[in-house]
TrEMBL record:
This is Pkg21D protein. PROSITE patterns: CNMP_BINDING_3, PROTEIN_KINASE_ATP, PROTEIN_KINASE_DOM. Residues 214-481 form the Protein kinase domain. The gene is Pkg21D. It comes from the Eukaryota. GO terms for molecular function: ATP binding; cAMP-dependent protein kinase activity.
Amino acid sequence: MPMHAEFTAKEDCTMYVIDRNHFSACFNRRGKRFDDFLSLLEEVQILSPLLASERFELACNAIGLVEFQPGERVLHQGLMRTAKLWYVIHSGTGVVSLDQEKNGKKENQFLTDLSRAAHFGERSLLRGDAAAPVNIDAGPDGMVCLTFWGDTICVLLRKVLEQENSVAPSPFCDLKEWWVRKARGFKSRDDGLNRMTISWDRMQSNCQVELDELTKVCALGKGAYGQVCLVEDAARGQRYALKALSKGYIAKQGTQRLVNGEREILSMIDSSFVIRLHRTFKDDQHVYFLLEAALGGSLVQVVKDHPEIFVQDMPRGQSGAFYAACVTAALEHLHERRIVHRDIKPENALLDEHGYAKVCDMGFARFVLSKTNTLVGTPDYMAPEVIDFPHTHNSSVDWWALGVLTFEILSGHTPFTDEGVSDPMERLLAIRRSQELGPLQFPFHFPQVAKGFVAELLQIRPHDRLGARGGAQDVRDHAMYRTLAFDFKAFHEQKLPTPFHRQWSYPEHFFTDDFGLDRGQLGLDPSDSIFIPYTADPADGWDARF
């Protein structure tokens, strides 16, 4: 590996060195250490209602393991908590006790013992108390705890507590009742898992069609990981978009967790501005997503085929504001669920039969509790913090992408140049340099009313970005929408006239069919480059929930 810099000591010093393997083990999300964290969280009963993707994200946010010596006090009753952490016991035991006044004397009352997967520290965090309500001491053999920042875990625990028939008592209940319930394990972990299963099954039951009842109508598109076809349930008179992925290709790429994450994310979504998942299927060689069919074409097709929509609208900027509002409504729904899309672009905004845009493709989406560190997305729409090492970002990247999308549909091109380079990484760096060149250069026909809107979305510093602090409401409150007198009430009721919609009844000739049409073949063709034969591993079972 080439050396990127030379370091010279200016004076005598002591340097601590860690080898690459140990460094990677500390930060890698693949490896025994991370798998150990994830396995521990699977045993924590209060987390059982969460989706696997949410527990995975929580494991990504672990601070690390902390060791306590036998008898060492971890939390002191009544003392200010300087480190607002949540603790999950990895090994060893803990002891919970309560200091009380009785007959003028201070007594220490034993409450319960704690063992692996037990947790503590959340009650005061959820209540907003500055001090711990009880004493927590390491047991006779010591104790090792996996720790998390309080702000991070409170996001998920509040979600668990707000659920109907929550597995945990309210943090505002009686203190002794709280610990008695914890000692009993709240409810069984199976109860939480069953609720998840019932919820998923309920979603599946709303769509009664089976895979063998579907026939292919035409091809809608093909990507790097699978194909999407328009399919028909002739018996019920319904049409859907069916996304087919090769199990063998997924296994080779090591993306089983990502595919399951996409399924889980889609199962949570219920918005008129996001493509809905009706159900999933699987066969020996494929997994399938049966999706809502939005057949008005993508927003990028509208920009290409009907540019007059954005230059002849009255008042000027109304069309761009409409589609920006559609994406904003989708992002509001996703961000409320701690989902960051990370690939907002015109290609991923599909028009329905009325002309309203719906965000699609959750392939890059993930749950994000605080921030994540992944270089992912489409270069032209990637925010500066995603490109810059260590790629730390949060939901603000979606607001940046909305700015790029709005600029593009109103001007016909993206705002940043790639300097004409073809190498993917060099192109990405060229775009990053372009982002730093100064004020945005708007073409002469760009609506004046939208310039400030786009400029505020395309702020280099994430916290300065429109939407970063106040979310979707900040975006809707922008002066652009006030100037245009945009009727958000009619918009959300989908009564607002749309800038454009196609007049048709599923004309098959409109769609491309680059890989041949076999109405009975719903999966990928065996000769396709993204199809790899799959041999099931009984010990794996990654596709069990499809």
